[in-house]
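dude i think i finally got it to work??
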Amino acid sequence: MLEHKHLLERVAHDFNKLVEQAENGAIASLMVEPVEGTSSCVVGYVFRDPSLPDPLQAGHNGSIKPASDAFDPNAWQSFYRVGLYAAERNDQGKVVDWATRAPPDGSMQAQAYWVPDECQLMDCERRAALFAHGFFVRNPIDGMLTVVLDAHVPGASNPQPSFRQWIDAADYLESATRGLPPLKELAPERQHQAKVRAGRDIARGVLPDYNEWLAGKTYRVRLLQVEISPKNQTTEREIEVSQGYYGLDEPLRGLAHSVRRVSHELSQGSDEAAELSDEPGASSDLRASHEAVEPRASDGLTAD
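look at this
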C-alpha cells in the first residue's frame, strides 16, 4: 500500500493531461482520495461540458422571447411575462447575463422577455395567491430573503425576518397573511400586482441557470477508481459521471463528499460500490441542478 502523499504524487504523474486541463480551466477541480486497505484511490474532478442543453429548453422553465416579438396584452401569459435587461456582455457584445430589473435611472428598455410555459403558468397562478399581500426582497450581499408585507397587513410596520431558503420565506409570508381576503376577491389592480410579483419571482429562480449556460459555465463531475500495480503501473475505471450542473457552486460543494463516499464504499467492499462500478450513472450526491426549479433570486434583484 502507498501512503497518501505518494499515492497522490503517483496519480498526479499519470494524470498529466488532467492536471494540464485543470490549469487552463477545462477542469475546475481535481481531488484524489486513497481507498483504505488497498493500493488504489478514487479520483474525482469537475470538468466543463459545453454540450449541456439550454436549461429553458431542457425542462419546463418557460422561454426567452426577443422584445420585438408581439405579445397579446389580453393573454394570460402577459401577466407573468418579465422584462429582461442586459446585465453583462461578452467580448463579442453578446448578452451573457440577464437581470429582471431595469437600471435605476430607467434609461434601458427591455431587450427580451421571459414567458412561462403551460406548466409554469400553473405555478404562477399558485404563487400569485402567495404574493397577494406581500413579497420578498433579496439582499445581494448574503442572499437572504426578507419578507415585506403590504401596508394594510397587521404588523407590516414591524421588522420582518429574513430567510436563507425560499420555502421558509414563503411559509412565513403565508402565515403572516392568513385570514386576509384571497386573491380572487381583491381589486383588479391588486390582482395584477400579485401576478407581476409571481412572474418576476419565478423568472428570478430560472435565470441564474440560464445565465450560467449563456456564459458557458456548464459542468459535470466524473469519479474514477485508479489501481496501482506492484510495478507502479496504473489502470483506471470509471465509476460514475454526474448529470449536468449550471454554475460551479453545486459541483464543487459535492465533489469532496462524493469522492470520500465512494472511497469508503470501495474500502468496505460494499454491494453498492460494486453496482456503481458495473453500472455507471449519476449518484444521489451528483444531481442535475436544472431539474430542480426551486426559486432563487439572481444578483442585483433586490425588490418586488
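Residues 55-117+195-214 form one domain.
im so relieved honestly
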